[in-house]
Amino acid sequence: MRYVNELPAERLHGKRVLVRAGFDVALTDGEVSEVFRIEKGLPTLKLLKDAGARVVILSHIGRKPEDTNAPVARALKKFLPVIYVPDISGTQARAAVEAMKEGDVLLLENLRRDEREVANDGLFAGELAQLGDLYVNDAFSNSHREHASMVRLPKLLPSYAGLLLRDEVEHLAKALKPPRPSLAIIGGAKFETKDPVIQLFLQSYDDVCVVGAIANDVLKARGFPVGRSRVSEHAPDEKVANHPRLLAPDDVVVERLDGQVLTKKPRAVLEDDLIADIGPESVAELAPLIEKAKFILWNGPTGIFEHGFNAQTQTIAEFISKSGAEKIIGGGDTIAAIEKAGVPLKNLGFVSTGGGAMLEYLLKRTLPAIKALG
């Protein structure tokens, strides 16, 4: 894989460089409420700007056709000058790119406003390619998607990986063969999406702890009641559920129908209980594993943090922040939960911009958009 920082500045000066960024950020009341991904994408943008390139940012946001990059542009302007163009590959976008000067940075509209992006349409990729001379993938968080700007566009231009993508690959490579003792903490909502990576980790990590909704699946497979808690259609295999290195919660925080919150042993969960988080005893059992670990991988909050069940995620984050282990934290919800808890990300080692992309990379050791770079 070729990296854009390996190109001398004179090879970049004056070039139109299409940067596929991963600026799919959280919004609150129409404004960006989480700038983590924007900040992680700045080094590549600044490198190109300083080299005198004409930088054209391609990105998507949200899931609705009306979602716009306008708030992303407002947030980005706090870090570097950027021109926002509410067009993707039409007349307005082409005119704006044509008018750019060396060192200008331009942000185009949400790629997914054009349905051809998700459809991986070749003609759409061709329209985008006409806007640039070089292509840079800096959207690790979207690199598991076979979309036009991710896998077709890099085939049409000289293509490189950005600094963010470089850092992600280099750090995650270490997670494939972690030093011992090692600990993986894995959460999520659907066990079927986590099952392959959990099985992989059970081969290479000393302890694998499941949290979040997938912990309900393991508890249920072990014969415990889970009440009205969320469970997956895909149940864990008995060998996985009862693996000696797979850790499930020893206690859980439940919410009753009347809103009362209680901490219980799994066997005491009632039909009307909703498991909302792991319990303090479960965290206490994790503490010595965190303390002695030389490598920690964490993907997924422990509870339903968006409904206020964030106490155990906060405690684990505080333990990990004090650990001397090499640490990799990933997943948008994980990062949001940690920041909501007030634990500084800078104390948590390498923080990945990917959630699903991070786990898929660890499982397959590559991603479709990385393969496309050649």
Automatic annotation (TrEMBL):
GO cellular component assignments: cytosol
Native source organism of the sequence: Candidatus Kaiserbacteria bacterium RIFCSPLOWO2_01_FULL_50_24
Chain segments annotated as transmembrane: none
Highest taxon of source: Bacteria
Record family assignment: Belongs to the phosphoglycerate kinase family.
Lineage: Bacteria, Candidatus Kaiseribacteriota
Name of the protein: Phosphoglycerate kinase
Kinase among keywords: yes
Protein's GO biological process: gluconeogenesis; glycolytic process
Entry GO MF terms: ADP binding; ATP binding; phosphoglycerate kinase activity
Binding, ATP: 194, 306, 331-334
Record Pfam families: PGK
Principal EC category: transferase
Keyword set includes ATP-binding: yes
Reactions that this protein is recorded to catalyse: (2R)-3-phosphoglycerate + ATP = (2R)-3-phospho-glyceroyl phosphate + ADP
Keyword field: ATP-binding, Kinase, Nucleotide-binding, Transferase
EC number: 2.7.2.3
